[in-house]
Amino acid sequence: MPTLLEALEHLEFTEFLWRPEVTFIISSIIMLSCMIISIFRSKWVFRVMDICFILSTLSLVVTLGVLASVGHEGFVQAWNSFVAKYGSPLTYESLKDLANNYALETYGYPIIGPTNLYHTLLLIPAIWWTFAYVAGPGWAAGEVKEVRRNMILGYLLGIAYYVGCFFVSLIIIDDNVIGREWMAAAAYAMEMPEWKDYLPISEANYILFASICTDNPILKFLMGINFTPVCYAWLLQSAGITPRALVACQWTE
Fold it and tell me: Cβ distance 57 to 165 under 8 Å?
């Protein structure tokens, strides 16, 4: 919800949602609704998950489509106009130069350092948790019927979808629209307290970057809802796994 409101540039409501008591109340309501839905028949549970998948995929397509349609020059102009509207001096080039100079002075190498096999291997355990997004659909597919066939298809299609999304976003969007070096610089700057106050955006992600490239409120809404159905489907799946696993177990004395 904060991402949606930020995409629509309702920053005052975003700050309200991040208040601890508000976050607790909304999270409790969402989790309770997931628990109630998980009690129903599997058909209805998977129907809700299908809706979440369709909405999140539509949001992803719109987000990548908006970024691809503006191109690199269009994105640079959109970012510079966006920060100027909020009085920030961190234009596209100045943000990249600031992050690179800080990295060089502090660590001795630019924001994107040289790639090597050792560093790549160290990162594998850190990003392996993303396999859960493939394992989840695979488990759900096997819950319906024909476990052997559907579970294998769930894993294979999940991996194809996941790898495909990464290929499109990282290769096409990062390299040709946003700029991989600038994306890294923006993510770095948004974690620095002394720079964050000058950035009218909370985090470096495709949704918020795409939202500044269009004035269409419908497109902003479709992009902003991306995390909402994804998180809801994940919570719904998590609420159903534990009781189903317990029921499936055979307890013997």
Answer: no
**AA identity, residue 30:** I
Q: List b or e across 108-128, with b for residues whose CB sees 16 or more CB atoms inside 10 angstroms.
A: eebbbeeeeeeeeeeeeeeee
Q: CA 253, CA 242: separation in Å to the nearest integer?
A: 21
Confirm whether pTM is higher than 0.85. Answer: no
* 156-190 burial: b if 16+ Cβ within 10 Å, else e: eebeeeeeeeeeebeeebbeebbbebbbbbbebbe
Residue 207 near residue 7, CB atoms below 8 Å: yes
Please check whether residue 174 is in contact with residue 180, taking contact to mean a CB–CB distance below 8 angstroms.
Answer: yes
In this model, does residue 40 exceed pLDDT 60? yes
Residues 6+ apart with CB under 8 A from 223: 7, 59, 62, 63, 66, 207, 210, 211
SS3 (DSSP) at 213: coil
Residues 57-82, mean pLDDT to the nearest whole number: 89
Which sequence spans correspond to the domains of the chain?
46-230
pLDDT value, residue 253: 45
Amino acid at 44: W
Q: Which two tokens stand for residue 51?
A: 């809706």
Given the structure tokens 């024909």, which residue do they identify?
Answer: 146
Task: Please say if the pLDDT value at position 194 is more than 50.
Answer: yes
pLDDT value at residue 80:
92
SS3 91: coil
